[in-house]
Amino acid sequence: MRKLINLFLLIFTTIVPYSAYAILSMELTRGVAGAIPIAIVPFVLPGDNTLPQDVSGIITSDLQNSGRFKVYGKSALNQFPSEANQVSTDYFKRLGTNNVVVGKIVALDGHRYQVSVQLLDIFRDQGASNVVLSKKYTISANEMRALAHHISDLIYEQITGVRGIFSTKIVYVVVQRSADASTRYLLEVADQDGYNPRPLLNSPEPIMSPAWSPNGKQIAYVSFENKQAGIYIEDVAIGTRRLLSEFPGINGAPSWSHDGKRLALVLSKDGAPNIYIMDIATRRLSKVTHDFYINTEPAWSPDGKSLVYTSNRSGGLPQIYQLNLASGLSSRVSFDGDYNARASYTRDGKNIVMIHRVSGIYNIGILDLDSGTIRVLNSTVGDSSSPSVAPNGSMVLYDTFYNGRNVLGMVSSDGRVQLRMPARSGDAQDPAWSPFLS
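^ that's the sequence the OP posted. Answer follows.
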């Protein structure tokens, strides 16, 4: 893979307008066979008022793009109840769904709205209420999209038992190349579906390796804006930032500990690239690898007791190693394939997601740490890199080469669901998924 190989060799040898609309456009390319049927009835706003956001439409897109639901929306329906007592169970049974979402919106004074939503399971036992979820909210107009994602989260969790990720965010780098051969790099945060993009940094110099803090309030990243690699931490809400590390040589691959107090990072200030842990408050460094190999791309285990990282210490191309922080000992964990890199743990700590080369193509693989077996998750014709696991463990965000451009992709952790998120302008790369934000 061109970008990944260039990055590894770098370690070895050494203005656009924004709006509330999506810069990334999510496309479902593969969903689950036998997906759960659900009807999303359009929410009603009485009178001639126009909704600032299509709440039911956003819920429809969220659930449809999860790949795990077969959604019956406006075009598939000819009955449009707005309350549970208006729902014809016979009609929706004939339609083929037992899950029905209804709701309505009432305009209040002061540009505020009251939104009510109900989820019905019309096949529940006789005598039991078929309303399994009922919520009412009072919000402002600019909160409607966020509320729609929140409702999607509630529906997803109610039906699947897994917490939804529709209210989370993603960060990524957009590379824009102009006709005059100049290049700009933008560090951008957006909703997980690509909407509400917001730039954190716009620079003529490369930006790399963004990483979310565990509380979702800060992002660490690498910037070359001073003609020298430096690691910065930026407050996402207010935009203030500070330079954390700018030692001579490599300053790269920041990774937050799960208590948010430390960063694992890669420095070459003493010669070869090695992994260090920095106490963020004091900036005190502890060196945790001590050799002349290339050691890079650290990622913390959920319990904070170990790191996985990429190294060529076995000779040849990179493989994945696990470092026990108590003993200081490293052990190789990837053996299948001649190239494995950029690993991170799944939320349960039982697997790691990584770049895995198969037949010359760089794919996203998942390694079972108990058995040592690797499964390829995505099926693309172009190389893929930079995997980042969603906070509920259900999806993996990555970048991939498609139709001559670098785009973002998502694949479920079982490999059954795939999506693409092409950027409307430029190439998107180096994505990272936020933690749960509420």
